From TrEMBL:
Residues 162-410 form the DUF7847 domain. The keyword Membrane applies. Keywords: Membrane, Transmembrane, Transmembrane helix. The keyword Protein transport does not apply. The chain crosses the membrane at residues 147-169, 202-227, 247-271, 277-301, 331-364, 384-411. This is Glycerophosphoryl diester phosphodiesterase membrane domain-containing protein. InterPro entries: DUF7847. Residues 83-110 have a biased composition (Gly residues). Residues 59-82 have a biased composition (Pro residues). Residues 1-117 are annotated as: Disordered. Residues 12-21 have a biased composition (Polar residues).
Length: 444
């Protein structure tokens, strides 16, 4: 089956599991991450192109620059200005070359790499952690009308549904009094836990649907922002609409996988508990759930780039999951760390907005702030509406950041493995891009 993905604007050959740091059809030898000689004298001359290579004819030429690590070899001249990674910048980097035409290390004619092309919110090269976070924030700041408009619309609709469910349905069925009663029977505790779980699950499901819808629309906005091309809310919706149902299917499948793995770990302990070994069964249940929870987390990070792959490459659900697994392979900790950092930052910023609204809502309803802190307050429509306004504002912040980081991580992994920067540069109209070797990532 043809596994060639398409990019909403640019397209690129798939990685096919190619690991970073290896040369071959999946990555040119002169791209960052490939093993290269550290001394100019050790670098081989230009090689004939590999007849089996699948790269385009516009791939970067063999690298002509490496950091000098000592005196030049006898008879070797430094490259003339304008070759390799760029000529000498205006004003030079240091002292002029010596009388014999040699170079004085970094103070001579050797120039640092030129800045990468940046038609949009990110430079077209492998990205550092700060550049990914900055790209997500820059997208929200540069295209704030579209980004905040989408986030506001989705957050308002989602919160209205949650408030109506809490006000008319969930509060009538949910009773947590038994959880605070030391004399409650096992049946009462079970019913109270079931009601609380039902309420939390319904709210989580509604919030998840809103998150999926926002992600679908903001993926299109972020992908255009990388090219420096604005997009309206209507254009984002028209582009994302054919893929929204598949995106819901993808999220549902990932939830089923995570829940199935987590429950599978608890089954042995539950069976032991039912057999009569209460303490041993409880311990086994906790241990099994922890172990399978780690496995579920590993799977979720492995498939975390499936959403942008599905939206931008027009892939099926299974193909999108496969693409995510290939892109994350060998970079699991990096992907996990960046997404965790983005989630923490977004939720801290959102909490700064949500917490004051929650205390204000508690002060204006029920038994006041004291009742809210004790968990004994009777909160009605006033509390739900005021706290809901805070949740809407918080969602306007979290939606763009988390969706933007996920999309930029996907783009970064494809730049590292598949030279997607060449396709992005052509789509953005960058002239003569690829005539030199892109500079390496400034960080991890």
């Amino acid at each position: 089956m043809n596994d060639t993905p398409g990019w909403a604007s640019p397209g690129s050959a798939p990685s096919n599991g190619q690991e970073p740091g290896t040369s071959g059809p999946g990555e040119p030898a002169d791209r960052p991450g490939a093993a290269q000689p550290s001394h100019p004298a050790d670098r081989p001359g230009p090689q004939a192109p590999d007849p089996g290579s699948k790269w385009s004819k516009e791939q970067p030429p063999p690298a002509q620059w490496s950091a000098p690590s000592g005196p030049p070899s006898p008879g070797q001249e430094p490259p003339p200005p304008g070759t390799g990674w760029g000529g000498r910048p205006p004003g030079g980097y240091g002292n002029p070359p010596g009388p014999g035409g040699g170079h004085g290390g970094w103070g001579g004619q050797w120039a640092g790499p030129p800045p990468a092309a940046k038609p949009g919110v990110i430079p077209l090269r492998p990205l550092g952690v700060g550049e990914i976070l900055d790209g997500a924030v820059s997208t929200m700041r540069t295209y704030w009308r579209t980004v905040l408009g989408i986030a506001l619309a989705v957050a308002v609709v989602t919160e209205i549904i949650v408030i109506l469910l809490q006000g008319f349905v969930l509060d009538e069925q949910t009773s947590a009094e038994a959880l605070e009663d030391p004399n409650a029977t096992l049946g009462e505790l079970t019913r109270a836990l079931g009601d609380a779980l039902l309420s939390s699950s319904v709210i989580f499901l509604i919030s998840l649907i809103g998150t999926v819808a926002a992600t679908a629309l903001l993926t299109t906005v972020t992908s255009r922002a990388v090219l420096g091309k604005p997009v309206t809310t209507g254009e984002a919706w028209r582009d994302a609409r054919p893929r929204v149902l598949k995106l819901f299917g993808l999220i549902f499948l990932l939830l089923v996988i995570a829940l199935g793995v987590a429950v599978a770990g608890a089954v042995p302990g539950i069976l032991v508990t039912l057999a009569g070994a209460g303490a041993a069964g409880a311990a086994l249940t906790v241990l099994g759930s922890m172990c399978t929870g780690v496995v579920a987390l590993w799977l979720m990070v492995r498939f975390s780039l499936a959403s942008p792959a599905l939206m931008l490459e027009k892939q099926s659900i299974v193909k999108a999951m496969s693409r995510s697994a290939k892109l994350v392979r060998g970079a699991w900790w990096r992907v996990f760390g960046i997404q965790l950092l983005a989630t923490i930052i977004a939720n801290i910023v959102a909490a700064i907005v949500v917490i004051p609204f929650t205390f204000l809502a508690a002060a204006l309803s029920g038994d006041g702030v004291g009742g809210f802190l004790d968990g004994t307050g009777d909160f009605g429509w006033t509390f739900l509406i005021i706290s809901g306004i805070g949740s809407v504002i918080g969602s306007m912040i979290t939606f763009p950041i988390t969706a933007g980081v996920t999309v930029l991580l996907y783009i970064d992994q494809r730049i590292r493995r598949e030279a997607l920067d060449l396709e992005l540069a052509r789509a953005a109209g960058v002239q003569d891009y690829g005539s030199g070797t892109p500079d390496p990532s400034p960080g991890s």
